[in-house]
Design a protein that fits this description.
single chain, 595 residues, alpha+beta, Glutamine Phosphoribosylpyrophosphate, subunit 1, domain 1, Rossmann fold, 6-stranded antiparallel beta sheet, 25 helices, AsnB_N, asparagine synthase (glutamine-hydrolyzing)
Length: 595
């Protein structure tokens, strides 16, 4: 796991590349405190890698070059099938100087070109440059586990693992993007390719940006596919094959030369990982976090005990979360209103004492069809179009998000999403939508930023390529059965391996007491609302209306209606986190305040 960044400055000398890379090193040091390396070519472009050493600790220094020194790479992530690809290349006559997966990517690109990207099974964001062809490739993994941002302005292109490095550049254009704001207000995170800034974009999951002679163009090298097999495999076959694929997915992600742990909530996803670890003979430590009054400790203890795994529980309070609030905002790199970021940050403090890598069950719901709304909408009888709209609405948190925007002429938000639901069954459309939006830009984004703030690497066995490719092509009945049981096939596989109440219990999720946080942070919330009217954000948002709604909340306007009150609480938290990021975090990223 690493941080990467680079500057392409071909037709002007607006930025001193060497000085810029030195600055990037300071800003991104938490992503790779063990080692760093740079490459500069004729002050036209330069790249940096900051390394968290996990695989091939002794000789995995980056950048890595080909034998002729005409091609190089800086890489962030892990490739779980790199040994398979390496053996293919060795048969073709390639020689390797290191044992690292980074070198395999570079040599694989020499052999296969962009076709290599689809062969990779792992999490990654990397930059490959070819001096002879004057080409640069920026690539993000299939599921968007690793982040990658790009700033473009005329002849200058800058990329980084984190936005804060881009914002540190002197004189860059930080014009705000209304689409990014509406995304945050609608979903509580921002969907690719947008950010809050017009000139800063995300490289989308499964996408490559190719820069040739200074001109950038993106193409998709991989996309989700849900083609059902014909004839449908038998239940016996699916259980046998899927069990082996799950075991292989967990086994491949135990790679490395450092201690590995597991986030164990006691839900079926993380418990499946714990079972597979036990089956593989690994003796890892498991971790969970909760509040004294609300937690899942009963279930995680039960699973850890069953499989003989050491288990560490972290009990936290709202007071501790509030103490971490500023640090979390800085770590997130952009506003994300998912309050689960706060306890995750607290848990990472404990993880750091024991491990450098942690496995997590994220992705199980999106791959196997685990969210309750999937089953609810499949069981409804309205026309397809109405159910499609209902699903999108369940992905939104504001019905009236446009009311907070001063510019209300932005194209309808649903215009982006028809592609997910065209010519495929409703469940496949919902899964595809969540895999392309919610998964990379909320779940993976917060996991990457919070874990890397503590120099920790997160791995996600349910996002294994082979596992996804297999499950995505199973008929719907294996994901949600005729009784609308979610994750049906996973539960069938695990029902004899896990305690019954682990398999059958309702999905809980991590509950953060947002209402209590807002109550205890009332002075901070009100002060933030009153102090942003002179910031650039006031050119995009109706600050008066936001202040009025925040004041109404604290006056108890919706206390008599529990449903409206719950929605209002989420709305206020979403608004507050957005305003606070602009008030507190952004000034600390920008030029003049950089480290």
């Amino acid at each position: 796991m690493c941080g990467i960044a680079g500057l392409i400055n071909k037709k002007n000398d607006r930025f001193n590349i060497e000085e810029t890379l030195v600055s990037f090193k300071k800003i991104l040091n938490h992503r790779g405190p063990d080692d760093s390396g740079t490459f500069i070519h004729e002050n036209k472009y330069g790249f940096i890698n900051l390394r968290l050493s996990i695989v091939d600790i002794a000789s995995g220094h980056q950048p890595i070059f080909n034998e002729q020194k005409t091609m190089g790479i800086v890489f962030n992530g892990e490739i779980y099938n790199y040994l398979v690809i390496r053996r293919e290349l060795e048969k073709k006559g390639y020689l390797f100087q290191t044992k690292s997966d980074t070198e395999v990517i570079l040599r694989g690109f020499e052999e296969y070109g962009t076709e290599l990207f689809g062969k990779l099974n792992g999490m990654f964001a990397f930059c490959i440059w070819d001096i002879k062809k004057d080409e640069i490739y920026l690539v993000r993994d299939h599921f968007g586990i690793k982040p990658l941002y790009v700033y473009q302005d005329g002849d200058v292109l800058v990329f980084s693992s984190e936005i804060k490095a881009l914002l540190s550049l002197e004189g860059i254009d930080t014009s705000l993007d209304e689409i990014g704001f509406r995304d945050h207000l609608t979903f509580r995170y921002i969907q690719a390719p947008y950010t809050l800034f017009k000139r800063i974009k995300r490289v989308e999951a499964g996408t490559c940006m190719r820069i040739h002679n200074g001109t950038a163009a993106s193409f998709r090298y991989w996309d989700t596919s849900y083609d059902d097999p014909y004839p449908a495999p038998s239940l016996k076959t699916v259980k046998e094959e899927l069990s082996e694929i799950l075991k292989k997915a967990v086994s491949s992600q135990l790679m490395g030369e450092v201690p590995v742990g597991v986030l164990l909530s006691g839900g079926i996803d993380s418990s499946t990982i714990a079972y597979m670890i036990n089956k593989l003979g690994a003796n890892l430590t498991t971790f969970n976090i909760g509040f004294p009054e609300v937690n899942e400790f009963e279930y995680s203890r039960k699973v850890a005990k069953k499989f003989g795994l050491k288990h560490i529980e972290v009990s936290t309070t709202t007071e501790e979360l509030i103490k971490d609030f500023d640090a979390v905002n800085l770590a997130l790199d952009e506003p994300i209103a998912d309050a689960a970021c706060l306890p995750l940050y607290r848990l990472c403090k404990e993880l750091k004492k024991h491990v450098m890598v942690v496995l997590s069950g994220e992705g199980g719901d999106e791959v196997f069809g685990g969210y309750p709304q999937y089953a609810t909408l499949l069981s409804d009888m309205p026309p397809y179009a109405e159910r499609f709209n209902a699903f999108l609405k369940q992905s939104w948190y504001f019905d009236n998000q446009d009311d907070y925007l001063l510019n209300r002429t932005i194209p309808p938000i649903t215009s982006r999403y028809n592609k997910y639901f065209e010519e495929q069954p409703l469940l496949n459309g919902m899964l595809s939508y969540d895999m392309r939006t919610w998964m990379p830009e909320n779940l993976m984004m917060k996991a990457d930023k919070i874990l890397m703030a503590h120099s920790l690497e997160g791995r996600f066995p349910f996002l294994d390529r082979e596992l996804f490719d297999y499950v995505s092509r199973l008929p719907q009945k294996y994901k949600i059965d005729s009784q609308y049981t979610t994750k049906w096939i996973l539960k069938e596989i695990m029902k004899d391996q896990l305690p019954t109440n682990i398999v059958t219990r309702k999905k809980m999720g991590f509950t953060v007491p947002i209402e209590l946080l807002l109550k205890k942070m009332k002075p901070q919330v009100l002060d933030t609302a009153n102090s942003v009217s002179r910031l650039p954000i006031a050119d995009v948002l109706d600050i008066k209306k936001i202040k009025k709604n925040i004041e109404s909340y604290y006056k108890g306007q919706f206390n008599s209606n529990p449903h409206l009150k719950t929605t209002f609480i989420l709305n206020i938290w979403t608004l507050f986190t957005l305003l606070y990021w602009f008030k507190f975090s952004l000034p600390r990223y920008t030029y003049g305040n950089r480290p």
